[in-house]
Amino acid sequence: MTAPRKALVRNLITSLVTVGAVKTTKPRARVLAAQFDELVTGVRRQKEAREQIRFVKQTLFTEESQRAFFDRVLPALESRKSGFTRSALLGPRKGDAAEIVHIEICSETR
Q: How many Å is the maximal CA-CA distance in the chain?
């Protein structure tokens, strides 16, 4: 992944964790969901708390989002094994007809 694309994905993940939902284009949403799943499963693989913190700091930009990840997101996703995000197609954007997707963190269990 190139540096600008990696920064874009990191910004999207940071916004997703901070706000809980993001509207973006369909290709970006696919990458966002995959990277967010990797983040959650990667944190779960770490044995010690400091390793988990270091792993999250590599992805999330702000300290606020890092705290929100450990305080809100991880406990909400504790019972899930995969599929940590939910997306809904909103339709085409007016300017360039790009497909817009609303992507959010799944909080309830299925």
A: 48
Instruction: Please identify which residue in the block is written with the tokens 């400091």.
Output: 50
CA 109 from chain centre, in angstroms, equals 17
* Distance (Å, whole) CA 26 – CA 57: 26
Beta bridge partners, 85, equal 105
Domains annotated for the chain, with CATH where assigned, are: 3-105 (3.90.1030.10)
Q: Which two tokens stand for residue 46?
A: 């770490």
Residue 1: the pLDDT is: 77
What is the spatial distance between Cα 85 and Cα 79, in angstroms, rounded to a whole number?
Answer: 14
Distances (CA, A) of 81 to 35, 71, 109: 15, 18, 10
Q: pLDDT (tens digit, 9 = 90+) per residue, 10-69?
A: 999 999 999 999 999 999 999 999 999 999 999 999 999 999 999 999 999 999 999 999
